[in-house]
Structure prediction request, 672 residues.
Amino acid sequence: MNPARLRRNLAVALPPVVLGVAFIALWQMWVKARDIKPFVIPAPSKIWQAFTADLGLVRDASVVTGFNALVGLVLGAVLGFVVAAAANRFSLVSEIVNPLAVTVAAIPAVVIVGVLNNMYALDSQIARRIMTTIAVFFVVFVQVSKGLRQNNPTQMELMRSYAATPRQVMMKVRLPNALSYFFTGVRTAAPLALIIALVSEYFGGPQNGLGTKIASSLTGSNKALGFAYVLGGSIVGLVFYLGSSLLEYVFVPWQRRQRVQVNHTTNTQGEKHMRTRAVKTLSVAGLSGLLAVAAFSTASATTPPAGTEAMAPAGGGLKVDVSKCTAPTGGVKTKLQLQWFTQAQFAGYFAAVDQGFYKDAGLDVEILEGAVDIVPAKVLASGGADFAISWVPKALAEREAGAKITDIAQVFRKSGTLQVSFKDKNITKAADFKGKKIGNWGFGNEYEIFAALSKEGLDPAKDVTLIGQNFDMNGLLNGEIDAAEAMTYNEYAQVLEAKKADGSLYTADDLNVVSYEAEGVGMLQDAIFADEAKLSDPAYCGQAIAFVKASLQGWAFCRDNAEKCRDIVVAKGSKLGNSHQLWQMNEVNKLIWPAATGGVGTIEQDAWDRTAKIASETKNLDGKTVLTKAPDAESYTNDIVTEAIKQAKAAGVDVDGAGFAPLTVTVTEGGV
Prediction:
């Protein structure tokens, strides 16, 4: 290669490489120096280890998402080019397409994906490919339209002097000029296609692509694997970009010649500048390389070999000296992070606010609503809340990843997770899942499904078809899912609130229900978690006792006043109707009452050990477990709740609920 050209190429290629190496090196050093925990962000060395160790998994997921993106990229690019050419040639097409393009482009992608998922079967990739096609189409359409309008005036004047027809002008001038704009659009749309294909996987469908793998990994303890999947996606996006650049190099040779001519004319005056730039870049590259080697060497020296972690016993519990805890006074500001939207699942906490139980305990409590993308354990560990409500296995996964949080009260004694199917599917137990389409929500809600499959000797990757399910029962009602995941207090009622073809509502007689609690794989769900490190602080410890005591008082109130608590939740802005919330309140009470021996909120050792065992041993689609080791002894404590129960009893609160009798709730269409 010509030395001058080599220097020019190095001057272009080295800066981004140097920047990337420097960024990774500084990231590694920052994580190590600040002791950043994996639940916040893992170190690059850990991500690389996960990437190389599970290269096959990353490759398979990248192929699925990459192919969807490629289909959308090709179709969107072709359609964008053709429609732009037609719009330029025919004014009617332009008048129709341009306003439509602006309108559709303004609609959030999540809305379009939701509509497409309802149009096509949940086990199909079509919706994702159409969404990608739409996104690519508008990028290419805009670029090609611009290229068709911006032509060389000399060329256009020459064509007019030849009395060229509009078709000849289009073929000889406009389209060749638009090609460079076309490839600019394709280059821009290439990474976008991958992003859209990946994001589309979050809204239901097959669970074998990068989007679902990232979500699944990040809800478990192996955060590095989640980032390894992100790395896989980045590589696919880079391949798309380089591929589109190569196509431009091949099919638009006149652009290449123009660049060569420009480079030739500016070569002399730029030679000295490029030499200086190259020297500076190489110097920074050398320094960055040394930083990277030092950082990764440090990581290798301090990282224990895989499989050497000690398996801590599940029993024991964190010891808290409650005698040193000081009771809060004067309305201590306290934030509680929920794990989902406002509904009767959290009625006890809303009741404690409404009835003044928190105020009487010296607390001023603010309840933070949850959402799909909010991880309560992370919010708590990062200081965004004082306490959090979370399912135990999800919280334990975050704890293993460095979030030092502790279960201080187990409000729900039993799991409320079901798999619901219609009678004609003949699914009455987990063993009947074989060969069926099994829906699940993902995001850490699927652990019990994998546990049931494992218990029955079924391979989740081969013996069943797992389908990403939206947080509703439409997939079941539409016949796209054989058995849908549901909570006793929510989605199960949604089926009963739906109409059959004859206009009547579904009843329990139309359905089969597999209860994971009955299957012996139920895992502990809603619990109150606290900051472990702060429990040694007398003020926070007293705040925790007061919070748990008032919360349990709220749950006792809802046990005895289900309809009143329904009204409290609805008044707080619940998006669900009155009858649905009453059903939910009643079913939630069934998961709490009668309380455990010792009183409501007591953490029962056998249930805790079962949850820890399932989380440590059950493998998912990737062959990974939720936890890589048993949770340590400090992951829960009964000391806080025991003191809270003692104080609640002294205040006359029935903490046992031995006489609890559930209501008979009649559902209505739509749960209104």
The chain has a mean pLDDT of 87. The first helix runs from residue 3 to 34.
